[in-house]
């Protein structure tokens, strides 16, 4: 049973760390939170050293005062278990709990998440701390949600110590039903004399003289994700035992630079799915990244979710930490709401004056209230209050994009035909034209229910098991349209090449067979018959029922099909054997989705993002103007613009750089 967050409307707030400030500052915090419209804050995330100053000795006096203060001012608490940062005394008592990196270096304490996920001592201490916290605050009136740990795997996704090696072996015995022959077969250990005769011979994929076994590396990624998930589940059980009605979450990191955890496995264990999302300063089209991340998190949640962390301005951990431009903070936040977020929160409430994140922006910056960030924070609070009725509404999409962490991990292992392939870059390349066209998108697992969709895209599905491949091809056979990108279907779940020609699992369904791959060098391109170019990849495609749509015109494969279309049962299968340039790919996807009967959410001017959330009685149309020109968008004759509260009969104006949210009653 999923427990729901009880905070009304669109929740608003951020990480609150009052322990960093003198207590006389707290009263000002409360006053300013009320002024900004804050309704919920996360507290206690990094407070273990204060709550348990020595082993078994607890001091909750500061947290008692903070929670009482929040409740007295009508602000809910997302109360964290502080287990992401064990105190120094713990590591002095248990140095064996410190992690070991891939090169065998033991890491020291002195920052956060410097623990081995497989350490029994860490698990025992973390659950003891969680139990004390849960029993003390289970009935506190400020408590609205448990915030379990913080950003699992952010800094310690993998530990290569002996304790982790033993845990890996236990995990493998479970995966392979205690059958060592099954493991040897799955890992292909006859190659390079890697056959194992005893479970104790198996190690993590530590550095060796050559390339480690690819299936061993893939299983290691799976194990590392599951090991952290087991820690979350253990803490959550303790919390639910003490407070069975309080929902629990932990903050995912669905963003461009994090791939350590298989969130399809994690999401069902969260009552409320939440996410942290930070922009890449060097990304000139950050709106695409926000949209892709938001669609993926909404898909993981199966509906609304919470944005637990993002930034009001610059972060502190990139080579150059760019401040956000005029209106960008508001556009970013409302874009997340458009994609399903029922809560908007920041790291952090008050900018720190000391510590590793002292140059990270906050809701209340170093400059105080006489600042543009503060004025934007107050304005956003009013915006979210005006959007209260949007809460709980859902997105609607007829296009699904296949996203699989196993396929991502496997494709980015060493010794591929090309080391230039990046899963997220390929998915984004296909996603971007849909975003620009205003087409709604969900993300799905290969084995998901595909019946709600007209079109399914698999831009990069290097690894797929038989069930996933059958599910995708069956979708097309039943009348859907399936489009598959190069180097997909190449290996099974054990990273074994599917013999007989490429694209492996999909060659019969797509009506093509490739006998040799010709990846392209960095900067190299090949001509396409439609006038465009292809990069990254080419292959010698032979038709086996499919028709050519585009062909290579230069290079060793001149005249060979590059894009194909195949009738499959009642549906259609498309194959792209290269990465076309942006205009060519956009034109292809436009043709594919048009043939599939997929329309944009709303026709708008270029650069105006249109996103729809559907409630029980009304649709909510978010219009985000990313340009420096005002735009006019056609809406329903009985529409209302919610941020201003003004009627918008038939059309609404969206100023340059601004956002409009339109209610269209049904």
TrEMBL record:
One Pfam assignment: Glyco_hydro_42
Family from the record: Belongs to the glycosyl hydrolase 42 family.
Classification of source organism: Bacteria, Bacillati, Actinomycetota, Actinomycetes, Kitasatosporales
EC numbers for this chain: 3.2.1.23
Catalytic activity: Hydrolysis of terminal non-reducing beta-D-galactose residues in beta-D-galactosides
All copies of domain Beta-galactosidase trimerisation, residue ranges: 397-598
Protein name: Beta-galactosidase
Domain Glycoside hydrolase family 42 N-terminal: 15-386
Enzyme class: hydrolase
Keyword tags: Glycosidase, Hydrolase
All copies of domain Beta-galactosidase C-terminal, residue ranges: 607-664
Keyword Transport: no
InterPro entries per record: Beta_galactosidase_C, Beta_galactosidase_Trimer, Class_I_gatase-like, GH, Glyco_hydro_42, Glyco_hydro_42_N, Glyco_hydro_b
Organism this protein belongs to: Streptomyces osmaniensis
